[in-house]
């Protein structure tokens, strides 16, 4: 399917928020939430791939397998969005 990938910095693991994905609540880092909001504001594809959500971070074997496949995931995306963080006051 037609999808966009999102590349971003993970940020502080203690700095988290709750989000709803497919009617399920999950915790993500603030930077992930910000990157998702930016993608949605830009009217990106409704199909987004972001590692923190699409890879089960608690399942070590699955995570290692999926991380090894990230090159393919990014290369097959219609677009790759990069989020470098919040705007600075002077930017």
UniProtKB/TrEMBL annotation:
Domain annotation Heterokaryon incompatibility: ranges: 3-91
Top-level taxonomic group: Eukaryota
Pfam family membership, one: HET
Coiled-coil ranges from the UniProt annotation: none
InterPro entries assigned to the protein according to its UniProt record, in alphabetical order: HET, HetReg/Transcr_Mod
Protein name in UniProt: Heterokaryon incompatibility domain-containing protein
Organism the protein comes from: Setomelanomma holmii
